[in-house]
Design brief:
Blueprint lengths: L1 H4 L4 E4 L8 H10 L6 E4 L5 E2 L2 E2 L13 E4 L6 H11 L3 E4 L9 H17 L2 E3 L5 E4 L4 E3 L4 H7 L2 E8 L3 H12 L5 E6 L8 H10 L5 E6 L5 H9 L5 E5 L4 H11 L6 H10 L3 E2 L3 H11 L14 E6 L2 H13 L3 E2 L4 H10 L10 E2 L1 H7 L1 H14 L5 E7 L9 H4 L10 E6 L2 H13 L4 E2 L2 H15 L1
Parallel strand pairs: 1-2, 1-5, 5-6, 6-7, 10-11, 10-12, 12-13, 13-14, 15-16, 15-17, 15-18, 18-19, 19-20
Antiparallel strand pairs: 3-4, 8-9, 8-11
Helix pairs in contact: 3-4, 5-6, 11-18, 12-18, 13-15, 14-15
């Protein structure tokens, strides 16, 4: 896989100087980070964006490991023949119009694969958006350059996505919100040759990747995937498309994938210690929580024991309901913790879990009340994790993340935040929390699901 991730020379077949075109975006994106030779290929032009343009791949006179192909599907077999003549090692076919469109497209895809195998070339795709490596940064994709430049944010979560446009729009949305950073994004489309297994094996050895997420509509080799996942020391999260009969039918028209028996797949994923997500944002919520390197203690009772620190009795109740759903239980606070929390509360307010801390907040102010309560709960040996509810507002309600968490000492237990309030102030509270390594959410059920995923993987 090295010639895909670290190619010595890249040809862009279908490059064009036309504004707002995918062929132009591909060349522009390469110039943003790739330092090797770049060869636009299009017989209509002598030069594109300052680079010499070639009529054919075989005419390129420099080193060339990878060709990115972005021409109509019917033209791709001839391009592949030319890549064989040049000795290209890998191609990314980012064009659509193959097996996903029906029997004629399937025959065309099979023809391409036969040419590649005979010539010793590996195919990534077709019908995909290629590869993005944020650390370098390499953008081997036709995503809009300005959107990617504004959003790109290096991190430690890598994606393998059996989709094209989803991966581009989705990661730009996520990184633009500064919710998480990504290491590598691999859009593999129809995966007629290079599969999720080969890329997963590469990412499991990648020092920049801590967590791997996959959106898959089918498994190329289920046994191999199971072996990789079961032996992985990195968390793996899967969002499976095509779980229902209707979804399976839609997946076939999307990437020509046979979705398979979901009940069987679900059982196998559980055995392999793979965490399943229900939608794209949940998948990334889980991923950004798992990458934080929290410290876990094993609960004698079996179920993870969670403390809820809230300013509202109602939100504490709703959180408890969701915890029951996801296999979490309310922690029984130790006498020492009970005493510490009672010292800040009015005499008439009993302290129990969920900890309704509004009276203590009124008495001491939110900054001091949250700091003392979070510290006490974190030190409690009866507490495995904490969910904190915060209202972000003006004045004394604009809380400083470092201040309220300054009492947390030693290995960090999982502490997740649910946050509400006016958008401008809410963001001013969320971003420092995230930067300090504390995952923050706007929905209670996502907060609880992320907490449950931590212990699910730990077990």
């Amino acid at each position: 896989m090295d010639f895909f991730f670290e190619p010595n020379g890249i040809a862009v077949v279908g490059a064009t100087p036309e504004p707002f075109s995918g062929g132009r975006n591909l060349v522009t994106n390469l110039t943003l980070g790739y330092k090797g030779p770049i060869y636009p290929v299009n017989p209509k032009y002598d030069e594109i964006l300052g680079f010499k343009c070639y009529s054919r791949v075989s005419e390129i006179d420099g080193p060339l490991d990878l060709s990115i192909i972005f021409v109509p599907a019917r033209a791709v077999p001839q391009v592949l023949e030319d890549c064989v003549m040049k000795g290209v090692r890998g191609v990314m076919i980012e064009s659509g119009g193959f097996a996903e469109v029906g029997p004629e497209g399937r025959a065309l895809q099979d023809q391409c694969l036969a040419i590649a195998r005979k010539g010793g070339i590996r195919i990534w795709g077709p019908n995909c958006m290629g590869l993005i490596d944020t650390a370098k940064p390499y953008i081997f994709s036709f995503v809009i350059p300005k959107d990617m430049q504004e959003a790109i944010r290096p991190g430690h979560v890598s994606l393998i996505v059996q989709s094209g446009l989803l991966s581009g729009g989705f990661i730009i949305t996520l990184m633009g919100n500064k919710t998480l950073g990504l290491a590598k994004v691999c859009s593999i489309g129809n995966k007629c040759d290079v599969s999720e297994n080969e890329i997963l094996e590469y990412l499991l050895k990648d020092p920049f990747t801590k967590v791997v997420c996959l959106y898959l509509e089918s498994f190329t080799n289920g046994r191999r995937f199971f072996e990789l996942a079961a032996s992985s020391d990195k968390p793996i999260i899967v969002l499976k498309g095509g779980k229902t009969p209707s979804g399976a039918k839609a997946s076939f028209s999307h990437t020509a994938s046979l979705a398979g028996n979901y009940a069987l797949i679900r059982g196998i994923l559980r055995q392999a210690r793979v965490i399943e997500a229900e939608d794209f944002f949940e998948m990334m919520d889980i991923a950004r929580t798992l990458e934080k390197d929290f410290h876990f203690q094993r609960s004698p009772a079996g179920k993870p024991r969670i403390a809820i620190l809230t300013y509202s009795g109602a939100s504490g109740i709703v959180t408890t309901d969701h915890m029951e759903k996801y296999g979490l239980t309310l922690a029984h606070l130790s006498p020492q913790t009970q005493k510490q929390l009672e010292e800040l509360s009015p005499d008439w307010m009993p302290v129990k879990n969920p900890v309704d801390y509004w009276p203590a907040i009124e008495k001491n102010g939110p900054a001091l009340a949250y700091k003392q309560a979070i510290s006490a709960l974190h030190e409690d040996p009866e507490v495995d994790g904490i969910i904190v509810h915060i209202y972000a507002g003006h004045g004394i309600w604009l809380l400083d993340a470092k201040e309220i968490l300054s009492g947390v000492k030693g290995p960090r237990k999982p502490i997740l935040f649910w946050l509400i309030g006016p958008e401008s102030v809410r963001e001013a509270t969320r971003l420092p929390l995230e930067e300090e390594g504390w995952p923050t959410f706007y929905e209670i059920h996502r907060t609880v699901r992320a907490m449950a995923s931590l212990f699910e993987y730990c077990r």
